[in-house]
Fold:
Amino acid sequence: DYTEKRNITLVFACYLSTFLAIYIVPQFVDIKNDILSPQLEKFIYSFNFCSAFVLSFGIVTYFAHNNSKYIDNLISNQALLMKEAHLRIQSEEGLRKSLSEREILLGEIHHRVKNNLAIISALSSMQRDNLKEEEDRKIFEDTKSRIYTMALIHNQLYHNKSFAKIEFVEYVKKFCDNIAQSHQGKKEISIDQKIEDIGIDIKTAIPLALILNELITNSFKHAFKDRETGSITIGLMNVENNCLKCWVSDSGVGMNEEMLAKGGMGMEIVNSLADQIDAKLSYEKKDGSHFTLTFPICN
Structure:
């Protein structure tokens, strides 16, 4: 440390000063002839040599003692560090095991939820087939579509490496394929997807998916009544202020304010789910219907 370096430097400085004095003084002839006798001069040089030897031996002994002390401290600290490292390794192994068990449990939960929703969907189909009224059959078909929308999210989470986020690009692709298949008919309706590669947490993903289901299903049912062809566009992108923008538009007949106000249960569901994710919902009639959702990203 600093104190040791200072003390050693002072000792060497004193010894160097003495050596220089002994070397310089004899150079003055008067002093050498008058004061220094050969015996005294020999004694001074011998004393200087002995002093140097004693100082060197003392410094070497001092360093050897300190080195031994430092080595003992290092060995002791190394033992403590090894013990601490061993404890940390055990702790990390325990955390990894706990995390692995948690992931397996979450995966099993999502898998079971998906299976239960599939059972409910199958029961709805059976009940629908027993109904005679077409309006009642449509209600059960809509319910089945909503159930599938939720089941698809749990199925994707089950196959994801992470349960924190859902890759919405892949989800929307499967989701749109199912809706298009459910509404197959004589009309040729295409679904265009403009989805950025964004991960969305499950608290936002499920309400957003149900909103998309309602809006797209509504377009299939009402937007192309007098048309044989049409298109529906789904978009999702990042916008400023840590928000996402989602839109659903179609090339159909559009809706006026009166029709929008009487949107029925579907629009009630959309408005309720939009409130759940703090989304701002807007509608514009421009070459068809254009719904826009802007909502914050949950971190």
